[in-house]
Amino acid sequence: MRYATSGTEETQTDTLQGVVVQPTQASEVSIALLWAQENAIDVAVKGGGHSTAGTSSSDGGLVIDLSRMNGVTVDTTQKTITAQGGATWKEVDEAGAAQGLAAVGGTVNHTGVGGLTLGGGYGWLSGEYGLTIDNLLSATVVLADGRIVTASKSQNEDLFWGLRGAGYNFGVVVDFTYQAYDQKEPVFSGLLGYTPDKLEEVMGALNESLAQPDSRLGAMCFFALAPDGSGPMIMVIGFFNGSREEGESKFAGFTALQPIVNTLDMIPYSLVNTLQNPQATYGDRKAFKGIFYQPPLDPLFARTIFNDFMVKIQSDPDLAASAIILEFTDMRKICEVPLSSTAFASRNIYQNGIVHLRWTDATKDLEHRAWAREAQAKWKAELDAAIKDGDESSVPQYINYAEPGDSVVSNIYGENIDRLRDVKIKYDPNNVFHKMHPISTSK
Ligand SMILES: Cc1cc2nc3c(=O)[nH]c(=O)nc-3n(C[C@H](O)[C@H](O)[C@H](O)COP(=O)(O)OP(=O)(O)OC[C@H]3O[C@@H](n4cnc5c(N)ncnc54)[C@H](O)[C@@H]3O)c2cc1C
């Protein structure tokens, strides 16, 4: 049976699984895990299937595909949302919206709750409420030895700590319960599109949004080709969780730059997480290279990156769906949480981004991946130059954007690594869960 994840990376070629199981309950996950170990078969777990490094797939092994475990329930009294491990954020957003609630989930609603939560999770509500893991109340986990346990602040606390930021390492999470928040009102959000000559001014407006932070405000910037084929463009998704009047004022610096596209409007929160769906689809070949930068982002550096990227993606029509994505998130709430209170190591002021190449011709894999790595290295060099006391490798990288095999990935778990090793030895001593930045059990 052929069964592809959303793309491939240099760490893997296309994989052909030995067998895929689609459990409908935790006990079936437990049986599958035990069977695989008894027969010395490699195991992979698939949530939303968005890994571009093949970490939710196994060459010749067993894939536990959680897609049939995608139920979501809402507790309106406690204001919590429980999602099964194979749900996507679409199901969470829609179930929450029906009750006037929202959770901190991903900005592309077909991403899985599984992978995104276990690696931390940034979303449009992160400025106000922190990371997805900061709002995780409990999880049900099937361990390698087949036991089904609860992890929370009061049960298996060490496992709960490890799940929040290094969560791919310990078991199959069959449900997550999140704190949700009132979200009865729509938000002010939409797309702004600019011609390339506006790049420095757009960067100025984006930098200003972080210089004058508002926890309700966020933005993402995309260097990409216009969908109508008219050439390079700078796109911004703006987000403000407040009234139209205040939103217009918050984005006045952006609208004054005379965008050629402006869809800013009052829309339901759940719809904001669909805005990127037309571009962020499954399939094709992909390089997904996490980058990060220290704000304010130097407009001259951004210009160099933009120009180089456009030369690259205009050199081959097959690369037309590629983009460089830069996030502008108010990190204050995220950084309020002490580094040691969850396993998530990259709580810092640095902003995340992605160099994302996408193509279809497999003969171009090496060429395009090499280019993406070079682009990633330029961001690393820029950050190295900006950091006074050390180099970029001293800054833990965001695990969800740091696919295994990335050339600049050197530090994922930061100062939490020793404690994580103890948790790994306790819950997965034989390293059954080893696909995504496995924690070594030896020092
Ligand atoms: C289009 C796109 C948009 C994105 N947007 C955001 C964003 O807004 N915010 C953000 O923080 N990140 C974002 N990411 C990164 C995303 O969080 C990671 O790629 C994440 O790992 C995807 O999870 P998944 O369940 O869809 O993928 P999968 O490929 O299914 O899983 C990824 C990893 O998690 C493991 N896993 C998944 N579910 C479980 C489970 N229930 N139990 C145990 N292990 C599990 C898999 O084994 C695999 O190693 C985005 C990625 C893409 C491709």
TrEMBL record:
Keywords: FAD, Flavoprotein, Oxidoreductase. Belongs to the oxygen-dependent FAD-linked oxidoreductase family. Gene3D superfamilies: 3.30.465.10, 3.40.462.20, Uridine Diphospho-n-acetylenolpyruvylglucosamine Reductase, domain 2. The keyword Flavoprotein applies. GO terms for molecular function: FAD binding; oxidoreductase activity. Residues 13-183 form the FAD-binding PCMH-type domain. Pfam families: BBE, FAD_binding_4. This is FAD-binding PCMH-type domain-containing protein. PANTHER family: BINDING OXIDOREDUCTASE, PUTATIVE (AFU_ORTHOLOGUE AFUA_1G17690)-RELATED (PTHR42973), FAD BINDING DOMAIN PROTEIN (AFU_ORTHOLOGUE AFUA_2G00730) (PTHR42973:SF52).
